[in-house]
TrEMBL record:
GO terms for molecular function: transferase activity. Keywords: Transferase. Residues 24-147 form the Glycosyltransferase 2-like domain. The lineage of its organism: Bacteria, Bacillati, Actinomycetota, Actinomycetes, Kitasatosporales. Pfam families: Glycos_transf_2 (PF00535). Belongs to the glycosyltransferase 2 family. InterPro entries: Glyco_trans_2-like, Glycosyltransferase_2, Nucleotide-diphossugar_trans. This is Glycosyl transferase.
Length: 262
């Protein structure tokens, strides 16, 4: 009887893996009604909750989300910017594991199992990478790719990281990590800030190969030069910050077993 009770607390997420920790998905969205059907259709049914942070949409974003996922938790964003939306969503999560997913249809929800697998296997932070072996991107201009590489190189050298990708918004982590990285930015630079602060906090990082698809509908609010400068500003600010670098996290590529990502 006890075995039956224990088994019922686990969620099967693949033929080889079942987990007990509830998983929350955070989706920041503003005027993404046309893209949400593509986002939600790939989300696994075993997740605990979907938290959609609505950035004052003027289309049917909220109505579409509720139709697609009746139990969706809709949070109205009071501030502005992706960073603000994510922080708002994180605060509303009740799951032990939090996964960040963009609302433009560029992320494949089927990959969530890889992120969760990395976390339950011992990682604190599962970081998506388009440039790790097995990853890829259909939606990056040459100037963005160059900028991402340059900024990633700076972070690796200044903070002792071994990242292959820096400015990517598909990540997952244990909720307790939020207490150690203390997010306090509002824009697209939020992913960079997270990546730097998990290094400074000495958290164990595992890179997850991920494929980024082209935005399906609408135009991105990302501006390569403007947002690249904001990212650089965050890097310089964090480097001058007196928080100590504890120990270098072990950045693993999924399936590599041991070692650091290259």
């Amino acid at each position: 009887m006890q075995d039956q009770i224990t088994a019922s607390t686990y969620r099967p997420i693949s033929t080889h893996l079942a987990i007990a920790p509830p998983v929350s998905i955070v989706i920041p969205a503003m005027n993404e009604a046309e893209n949400l059907p593509f986002v939600f259709k790939t989300l696994p049914q075993w997740i605990h909750e979907v938290v959609l942070v609505d950035g004052n949409s003027t289309d049917d974003t909220v109505a579409v989300a509720r139709e697609l996922w009746p139990d969706v938790k809709v949070i109205e964003q009071r501030g502005k910017g992706k960073g603000d939306a994510l922080i708002t969503g994180f605060e509303a999560c009740t799951g032990d594991i939090i996964v960040m997913v963009d609302a433009d249809g560029s992320a494949d929800g089927h990959e969530i199992v890889s992120y969760v697998s990395a976390l339950v296997s011992g990682a604190d932070f599962a970081k998506g990478s388009r440039f790790a072996n097995g990853g890829g991107t259909d939606d990056m201009t040459p100037i963005r790719k160059l900028g991402n590489w340059a900024l990633c190189t700076v972070v690796n050298r200044k903070f002792g990281a071994r990242y292959t990708d820096l400015c990517y918004g598909y990540n997952a982590f244990w909720r307790h990590c939020l207490d150690k990285i203390d997010l306090d930015c509002t824009g697209f630079e939020v992913e960079t800030l997270m990546n730097i602060r998990v290094v400074k906090a000495g958290l164990k990082v595992q890179e997850i190969p991920s494929h980024e698809y082209v935005r399906i509908h609408g135009a991105s609010n990302l501006r390569a030069v403007r947002d690249g400068l904001r990212v650089l500003k965050v890097i310089l600010k964090e480097r001058s910050n007196r928080r100590s670098l504890r120990r270098r996290p072990r950045a693993l590529t999924l399936g590599s077993g041991t070692g650091e990502a290259s």
